[in-house]
Amino acid sequence: MKFNFQEENMMRRATIFVLSLTLLSLTTSGALADPLPLSTDDCAKCHDEVVTDVTTRGSKHNTAVTCLDCHLEHPPKGTEVIPACSMCHDPAEKTHYTIDNCIGCHYPHYPLEIDLDEAGTVKPVCISCHENEGTQLVDYPSMHSELDCKECHLAHGQFLPCLECHEPHTEEMIYEDCITCHQPHKPTVVKYPDNIQSAYCAGCHETETAVLAQNTTKHHDLSCAYCHKMQHKMVPLCTTCHGTPHDAALHTKFPDCISCHIDPHGLEK
Ligand code: HEC
Ligand code: HEC
Ligand code: HEC
Ligand code: HEC
Ligand code: HEC
Ligand code: HEC
Ligand code: HEC
Ligand code: HEC
Ligand code: HEC
Ligand code: HEC
Ligand code: HEC
Ligand code: HEC
Questions:
Q1: Residue 23 domain-assigned (yes or no)
Q2: pTM to 2 decimal places
Q3: Same domain, yes or no, for 109 and 128?
Q4: What are the residue boundaries of the Doubled CXXCH motif domain, all occurrences included (predicted)?
Q5: Please, are residues 231 and 182 in contact by the beta-carbon 8 Å criterion?
Q6: Is 108 helix (H, G, I), strand (E, B) or coil?
Q7: What pLDDT sits at residue 18?
Q8: Measured between alpha carbons, how far is 72 from 64 in angstroms, rounded to an integer?
Q9: Which of 51, 112, 257, 262 could crosslink 268 through cysteines, CB 3.0-4.6 Å?
Q10: What is the mean pLDDT of each successive set of 10 residues along the chain, which is 269 residues long?
Q11: 116 lines ligand 5 (CB under 6 A)
């Protein structure tokens, strides 16, 4: 539900106008002594819309405090009408409470209905609570480090799937595949489990894929990730799996297995 400030303001002005007339007529009738102290029950008589907002959308500002905990006094006599957030959310307590313009994100009568669209750059604020994600984006510089958090997190706790902004490497890929290889806050570090489909490598490595497919040796049955384990661009040594299978003299004379076996994907002799 979207709040319409303009409409609310007009209605409020209309209410205040009617009220002024009432107060004025009270004054001219000479009935005005010292005003009686207001109680929370009184607010609804004149600010019914605010009361409705707070009771239905106020979350802890409805349950943990009352109107009068925040609005210590009332105009025109009172001056402590609008509280500073720091009155209760002590900046010394949390980095988050040191940020400027709290109301830019939290309207106090419905503090958890945050419209990030209205909020300018949010990154410093997000990092005030999510230090890890901020650190990752700095430690692993990528094009994502240049984006504001809200480009991907349109609202708190939600996120845009990768495919909203990118093409997949192969047609069948879905979001879960993307984050199998990439993490959003350090996307250039590509890591994957042993069972990642070889078909996902194929989109970028046509040659190796084709050669391996035509291979009739036992390497044909191995997946890319079986040999190129865990991390993209990891290249295994033949000897890690095979040791030195031929006689020592041969290995000394031809230290590089590839000089006879030519290509791990083809294994020609
Ligand atoms: C008799 C009607 C009446 C009651 C009851 C009343 N108010 Fe008001 N309130 C007004 C009017 C009229 C104004 C505008 C006064 C002004 O701007 O000088 C106002 C202004 C305010 C403002 C300041 C708004 C601003 O823009 O600065 C706050 C806050 C406020 N009221 C809170 C409360 C709270 C909390 C209660 C209950 C404890 C309450 N009011 C009870 C009539 C009332
Ligand atoms: C957690 C503190 C807090 C509580 C609780 C709270 N308010 Fe407010 N209220 C504020 C602040 C801060 C503003 C000023 C908002 C701004 O600057 O736009 C405000 C603004 C107002 C205004 C001015 C008009 C408007 O809607 O912005 C009125 C009237 C008002 N409050 C009445 C109430 C009433 C009635 C209650 C109880 C049902 C209440 N408030 C509960 C903090 C609070
Ligand atoms: C009179 C004290 C008081 C004032 C003033 C006050 N708050 Fe709060 N606020 C509270 C309390 C108490 C809680 C509940 C804290 C808790 O449960 O840990 C709370 C909770 C919140 C929450 C979380 C709400 C939820 O339901 O989890 C937000 C967001 C918040 N305040 C923002 C603000 C902002 C922004 C301001 C200034 C516009 C402000 N508060 C002013 C007392 C206040
Ligand atoms: C850029 C937007 C933004 C600004 C500005 C902002 N906050 Fe928040 N705040 C958030 C978000 C997002 C959350 C998490 C809300 C949730 O958990 O649903 C939050 C949560 C909170 C909470 C509840 C959780 C907690 O840790 O206590 C309080 C209280 C709070 N903010 C107070 C403030 C105060 C006080 C200010 C100003 C000093 C402020 N916020 C400025 C976005 C903002
Ligand atoms: C006041 C502290 C606070 C602020 C500010 C804050 N968050 Fe959060 N955020 C939380 C808390 C607490 C949770 C719930 C934590 C959990 O479930 O592990 C959360 C959850 C999340 C989640 C979902 C985590 C999950 O596992 O589902 C995302 C995404 C997120 N925040 C992003 C952001 C972004 C982006 C911002 C800036 C607009 C932000 N947060 C600002 C406290 C905050
Ligand atoms: C809001 C749009 C958006 C979303 C959502 C998004 N990205 Fe990006 N991403 C970009 C932009 C913009 C760039 C830089 C330009 C480009 O390469 O298209 C980028 C670049 C990248 C890069 C290259 C980084 C570099 O520095 O070279 C990778 C990898 C990447 N994104 C992966 C992902 C993955 C995986 C996801 C989902 C977890 C994702 N992106 C979600 C906008 C987005
Ligand atoms: C390019 C898009 C993108 C950007 C930019 C981005 N995030 Fe995320 N973020 C995601 C995606 C996608 C997820 C969900 C990852 C998943 O499904 O495991 C996520 C998850 C999170 C989570 C939940 C915990 C976790 O790690 O799974 C938090 C908290 C979070 N992001 C905070 C932030 C903050 C803070 C920023 C800015 C400093 C930010 N993100 C920038 C896309 C992004
Ligand atoms: C099998 C692992 C794997 C999967 C699954 C995967 N990626 Fe990638 N992605 C990579 C590798 C490897 C690179 C190239 C990194 C390099 O150049 O060093 C890359 C690069 C990218 C880039 C940078 C631009 C480019 O094309 O080189 C983007 C953007 C990207 N991936 C997005 C995605 C998205 C979106 C998905 C999900 C649809 C996804 N990736 C799934 C491994 C994967
Ligand atoms: C988005 C495209 C993309 C995807 C998907 C991709 N790669 Fe790559 N890969 C590249 C690029 C770009 C290079 C660098 C090529 C160069 O340097 O000539 C590379 C290089 C490599 C290298 C060679 C490293 C070296 O030192 O020569 C290996 C091995 C490799 N990839 C394996 C894989 C495996 C295994 C997969 C699947 C799990 C995969 N790649 C998925 C783009 C991709
Ligand atoms: C990650 C482990 C791994 C790596 C690295 C590896 N291989 Fe293999 N290789 C295997 C497995 C598993 C087999 C099948 C063995 C079996 O079934 O007995 C095999 C079989 C072979 C065979 C026999 C093929 C056949 O069909 O009989 C040759 C020859 C061979 N490898 C050569 C090499 C060479 C040369 C390299 C380096 C370029 C290499 N391998 C790297 C795991 C590996
Ligand atoms: C049996 C293990 C094994 C399998 C299976 C395997 N590779 Fe390789 N790959 C290697 C080895 C060993 C090298 C290093 C060759 C060298 O030193 O010249 C290599 C090199 C590469 C290179 C670097 C460029 C080149 O051709 O030398 C790429 C790219 C590559 N592999 C991609 C793949 C892809 C994609 C797959 C799955 C289709 C795959 N590999 C399957 C062992 C394997
Ligand atoms: C001088 C050429 C030469 C070199 C160098 C060489 N090989 Fe071979 N390798 C062969 C020949 C020839 C065969 C037998 C092929 C056949 O029987 O089909 C063979 C067979 C193998 C086999 C299959 C053995 C079996 O019992 O099925 C493996 C595994 C193997 N080589 C691994 C290696 C490794 C690992 C290296 C490097 C450390 C290496 N080779 C270096 C020529 C060579």
A1: no
A2: 0.90
A3: no
A4: 177-208
A5: no
A6: coil
A7: 35
A8: 16
A9: 262
A10: 42 40 40 70 96 97 97 93 97 93 95 92 94 97 97 96 96 95 97 94 94 92 95 96 95 94 83
A11: yes
Q: Measured between alpha carbons, how far is 250 from 237 in angstroms, rounded to an integer?
A: 18
Ligand 6 atom at minimal distance to the Cα of residue 181: 35
Amino acid at 67: C
Residue to substitute in 65, 86, 95, 105 for testing ligand 4 pocket (most ligand atoms within 8 angstroms of CB): 105
Q: Is the CB of residue 136 less than 8 Å from the CB of residue 186? A: yes
Given a contact cutoff of 8 angstroms between Cβ atoms, the answer to whether 222 and 198 are in contact is: no
Q: Is residue 118 part of a domain?
A: no
Q: How far apart are the first and last CA of the chain?
A: 70
C-alpha to C-alpha distance for 183 and 135, rounded to whole angstroms: 14
Are 157 and 217 members of one domain?
A: no
Residues 145 and 104 both lie in one domain = no
Is the CB of 65 within 6 Å of ligand 4? no
Q: Look at the chain and report how many structural domains it folds into.
A: 3
In a domain, 20, yes or no: no
The owner of tokens 């001056």 is 79
Cβ 46 vs Cβ 14: under 8 Å:
no
Contact assessment for residue 187 and residue 139, using Cβ atoms and an 8 Å cutoff: no
Query: From start to end of 37-153, where are the E strands?
Result: none
The residue to which tokens 């009361």 are assigned: 51
Nearest protein Cα to ligand 12, atom 31: 245
Q: In terms of C-beta density within 10 A (0-12 exposed, 13-18 middle, 19 or more buried), how is residue 149 classed?
A: buried
pLDDT in the model for residue 17: 38
Decide if 245 is inside a domain: yes
Contacts of residue 120, Cβ cutoff 8 Å, sequence gap at least 6: 104
Range of the domain at 82: 40-113
Indicate the residue type of 191. K
